Amino acid sequence: LVPNQTFSVSSSSSTMIPSPISITTNASGVTDVYVQDGLPETATLTFTDATGTLSFGVPVQFVASTADSIALTATPTSVAPDGVSTATVNALVRDVNGVAVSNAVVDFYTLSSGTTTALLSGSRVLTDASGVASVTVKDTYAEIVNVYASLTLNSKPSTSTAITFEQSVASLALSSDITNLSANGSSKARLTATVLDVNGSPLTSRTVTFTTTGSALLTAITGTTNASGIVSVDLYSNTAETVSVVAKINALTKSQAITFTPVVNRLNVSVQPTNGAVAADGVSTGTIIVNVKDVNNAPITGQLITFADGTTGGSSAQLSTASAITDASGTASITVKDPVAEAVSIIATADTYTATGTINFALTTLSLVASAQTPFLADGNQNPVRITVKNQTGILMSNQTFSVSSSSSTMIPSPISITTNASGVADVYVQDGLPETATLTFTDATGTLSFGVPVQFVASTADSIALTATPTSVAPDGVSFATVSALVRDANGVAVSNAVVDFYTLSAGTTTALLSGSRLLTDATGVATVTVKDTYAEIVDVYASLTLNGKPSTSTAITFEQSVGSLALSSDITNLSANG
């Protein structure tokens, strides 16, 4: 420590004034000088020895004294806890007059409900020319972090903003337990939204909003996902209409069409064959035909009909389906077969109405097998159906005569009486101008035994396919999927229902992509839909073809790749010269 050393004191700034301008160290080698400034700046205080040959420079920073308040914002407020994704916290500092203050010192710090792992990019930051000081915050733990900003030097209270660190929503799915129901104000469809992260894991406590078109009502317009990532609401209506329910979370939306049908006032059931007698061979079928009408005696289209075995004590009967939707004539049907000789009662239910049809399955010494290249085009042309008749020991039976009838007025068989040849074979031809599935019934000469054969006719007017995929980029986790929709139109551009669309996939290598179906019928809007998922990162081309209509296929590409979980942007320099 050197006493009695004299220094002159000078400032690099005209506004930073030192006092005194000459100082001498005391016995402890120490001396003091005082500085003042009215301008926020960093200036240099220079100490020069008595000889004038040695100088010591000391930087001195002055910051704004007029800072009075902070307005704090964070963007975004929800961030993935991956240690990379960040939220930017901006502190806008103003004086008492509300004017932005530059060169004010803002102190940033964090708090959470536990021991936080959140990391700030800085702790003490100066406001820029617009009065804003900014920091970024990231985290490796799922938690809510409160970021505080304080004007500590100005003795002003702190303010805070909350940032939620949580896994990002990668996918949203929406489904309904029923898509056709009565507009009676009490029947409800249960809409279920499922929210998953990029790994296909469910996301809990996420808010999903629901909206609907038309007059239908939702039991709730928002809901929070449970531990399975699921939230559900109910939908009902007093108006016969088709509505679209939309689920939304963040930027993701999914929709589901729901059809409300007129309230059922009449339900009739009929059986084909009319005598109700069908061979109990486990192959031959009887048909249950249901027709529903409203209070004005008009047929109800799109009505859900459920079918159940109502036989006392149960039966061995096999139903082709447990439910069906009525067509434009208000009609829906199913087929029933049974390997056991018994009377089977089938209960059909529409809304609150029920009706029963009975089919008598009887033992036979004959078996009848039909073969046909179905489905057929509903173009009015004849299509062959061949039957082969055998006895119980498998011997082909010649000279067996059968009358031929149809369950549909538009499906016409020819001839209406056939006799098997020496090989036990006989041919009948059918034609139809209406896309439908009808039953061709062969009744033996005694009139006591019938064999039912379902025959499907599909739209013949299908001319083109417009193919779309949503989304076009999917995680290859074997769970996430894209939905591929094929809109089929005729030559006039009108959507075609009941057209057959064949789907298949191709990729550059051996694909692991899995389609939910391969041959589908278009719905009432002319659309056939499949889903596709994959466990391998690849580009998969999904093709759709109108094979039966002899039209070329079309395709759409789906990229299976890991989803983007976060995006970060940085620069090596944020201030530089505009020198070109």
First and last CA, distance: 53 Å
The best one-word shape is: elongated
Strand order of the largest sheet: 8-15-14-10-12
Number of helices: 0
Approximate helicity band: under 10%
Low-confidence stretches: none
Structural class: mainly beta
Number of strands: 51
Rg (CA only): 40 Å
How much is the average pLDDT? 91
Q: How would you characterize this protein structure?
A:
The chain has 580 residues and is mainly β. Helix content is 0%, strand content 52%. The protein has a 5-stranded mixed β-sheet, with no helix packed on it. It has a 5-stranded mixed β-sheet with strand order 17-24-23-19-21, with no helix packed on it. The protein has a 5-stranded mixed β-sheet with strand order 26-33-32-28-30, with no helix packed on it. The protein is elongated and about 140 Å long. The chain is built from no helices and 51 strands.
Q: Outline of this structure?
A:
With 580 residues, this protein is an all-beta fold. It is built from no helices and 51 strands. Strands 8-15-14-10-12 form a five-stranded mixed sheet, with no helix packed on it. Strands 17-24-23-19-21 form a five-stranded mixed sheet, with no helix packed on it.
